[in-house]
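hey m, so remember when u said the tokens were messed up on ur end? i reran from scratch. heres the input so u can diff it against urs
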Amino acid sequence: GNTLLNDAGFDYLADPKAILKGRIIVFAAFAVYSLVKEFIPQLGLALVIVFLGVLPWLVIRALSFNARNSTHRNVRFGFQAGYLETSSFLTIPVFLVPLTLGLIYPYYVYRKKKFFLEHSTYGNTPFTFGATAGAYYGVYFRVAMMFLLFLTGSIVTVGIGAIPLYLLFAAYRDGAVARLTWNNTTLAGMPFTWNWRTGELFTLYFVNSLAIIATVGLLVPWAAVRTVRYQLERLTIHANAAELDSFLANAQAQVGATGDEAADLLGFDFGL
């Protein structure tokens, strides 16, 4: 509600009771699994298998719930994906990342960004994503080099430089991945630019960390606001006012086709 695009705010319309229902279901399922695992281990394994089968449906439901409850200028976002496609995507972190000792992780990040963006819409207009898996491997190779620098520096400084060097590594990683993702994302032909800089992110993370430590956590909300402000104020969608107004008019005209069922939405959010 405090995020503005072209002087118009976003809104989140979810019913708190629907979110609570989802949390209760997750808590109850976990409690049942914990008890069964202790007393009947074989049945506990069966419940894990059932959970893996249900997981794609839960992911789709949660992402759809949050997208459809998010609006800008009275136009809802959307998310739609198929069960089989979601299942194949989820096998990567659940099975393939451990089996490949993490070597497939950059491909997983690429698939995750592609999966989320290409199944997301604003009104009925889909986002498009043009990055490649190779580009993510290039970014993560440089991130790995930064991680080696962090380890080496930590050893050389006998641990004294560990926290600043880790924050520098995290700043480089976050900025590089975000820039690659958003600079290859478009909406109705309008490109995005994500202008995070490693030096600025490092300063942000360092000051936030000092403030939180010095106040024993009391400044966590202050740090969160600073972080979100930095992130969003450096995200740009490139369109002149006439283009954006025309697109919004078309998007609002689409609402009639999908807005009536929005009151029911998808039941509740599972917090995924």
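this time it looks ok to me. The CA atoms of residues 129 and 185 lie 5 Å apart. if urs says something different then somethings off w ur setup not the seq
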